[in-house]
Design a protein that fits this description.
Distance between the termini: 32 Å
Strand order of the largest sheet: 6-7-12-10-11
Bound molecules: flavin-adenine dinucleotide
Low-confidence stretches: none
Radius of gyration: 21 Å
Order of helices and strands: EEHEEEEEHHEEEEHEHHEEHEEHEEEHE
Shape: globular
CATH class of the largest domain: Alpha Beta
């Protein structure tokens, strides 16, 4: 007996932060592993591709939509356990909203993810992308990921190491057959907030804020700095910060003395993609119904009813200009479907 309800010809645009995208040939919302297994069986039997959608806050879906089965991940549930005086272990289902997990952790006085406050999307999307902000990354606190293996229907557990996390990268980007079901985080009641990021350093200079104060500050800074999808369609940073060899950075600095670079050690430097885009003259630029946010040069926006093609054309224009001015190649952070 079928427990899932597979719908047809569903518009995906309203399910994404860009508000852009065509239709899914088939679409299903799943709230349990059994439902997921049934959805995957349906796709396998009919030879359809599968795309897992979380909160839609890091995707640009093509105008032609997705000619297969879109599985909207709604597996919920959060639980925690305290061991000893300080250690808090938290497990959250892949369909939980990431910021609800942060709010719960802060309520429990469990530190480690307060700098990742107000990042839109689900736990599944956060793991997939190894989200990061204000000097913190999900990988710093993640212990294990429970995942469903499409190949054989097994439920597997991957350790932090097995997830192959890197800057906005995880094994789930390479192996699309693994669907995140949930993640376990290790947090601490004895946590010393990380204030290394300039905005936080300035705000808390000489102070020892609680994790709740750090969360409030991060929310405040983000609301001022970034356009949120409720105001204007966007998916946060459109490009990754490029990493280049230190020798290239040294040559660039001769021409552009104020060029920001974060030394990663091992002979490479991470540049600020926002600064490159701003210097290339794109900040606040509008092209028809799309543009580069006037609040943040890394954010491409849909001013209303635009298409994926218009956004991709703009992203190409930005990439080409940055490449010809700085010789630096920008890579997309947003997943193009
Ligand atoms: C205003 C704004 C600010 C942002 N700021 C940040 C930031 O500071 N730092 C940062 O890192 N990101 C940021 N982002 C990007 C985005 O919030 C994150 O990438 C987020 O983790 C995406 O989660 P999602 O559930 O919305 O994923 P979706 O957009 O739905 O999906 C993204 C990718 O993850 C895959 N995926 C989703 N769920 C699963 C699952 N259960 N199993 C396997 N694959 C899955 C999808 O297939 C897709 O390939 C921002 C976005 C916005 C709109």
């Amino acid at each position: 007996m079928f427990i899932i309800k597979i719908k047809q010809n569903i518009s995906l645009a309203p399910l994404t932060a860009f508000g852009i995208g065509g239709r899914a040939k088939f679409f299903v919302e799943i709230g349990s592993v059994d439902e997921l297994a049934e959805a995957v069986n349906f796709a396998t039997k009919n030879n359809f591709g599968v795309f897992v959608l979380g909160g839609g806050s890091n995707v640009l879906i093509s105008d032609g939509g997705f000619n297969g089965l879109v599985i909207k991940m709604n597996i919920s549930g959060m639980r925690h356990a305290v061991s000893g005086e300080h250690v808090v272990s938290m497990y959250a289902g892949a369909g939980e909203m990431w910021d609800d997990v942060v709010a719960k952790a802060v309520e429990l006085n469990a530190g480690g993810i307060e700098n990742l406050s107000l990042i839109p999307g689900t736990v599944g999307g956060a793991v997939y992308q190894n989200i990061g902000a204000y000097g913190a990354e999900l990988k710093d606190v993640l212990v294990l990921v429970k995942a469903y293996d499409i190949k054989n229907g097994d439920i597997v557990e991957l350790s932090n190491k097995e997830c192959c996390f890197d800057y906005r990268h995880s094994i789930f980007k390479k192996n699309k057959g693994l669907i995140v079901l949930g993640a376990e985080l290790l947090l601490s009641k004895n946590h010393k907030p990380s204030l290394s990021y300039p905005d936080l350093k300035k705000r808390f200079s000489g102070l020892s804020p609680t994790i709740s104060e750090v969360r409030r500050a991060v929310i405040d800074i983000r609301r001022n700095k970034l356009p949120y999808p409720e105001e204007v369609g966007n998916a946060g940073s459109f490009f990754k910060n490029p990493i280049i060899p230190i020798s290239n950075y040294q040559s660039l600095v001769v021409k552009f003395p104020d060029l920001k670079g974060h030394d990663l050690g091992s002979g490479s430097v991470k540049l600020s993609a926002a600064q490159l885009i701003e210097k290339a003259g794109f900040k606040g630029k509008k092209v028809g119904r799309v543009g580069v946010s006037e609040k943040h040069a890394l954010v491409l926006v849909n001013y209303g009813k635009s298409t994926a093609k218009e956004l991709i054309d703009l992203s190409r224009m930005v990439k080409e200009t940055v490449k010809s001015k700085f010789g630096v190649i920008l890579e997309s952070e947003v997943e193009q479907i």
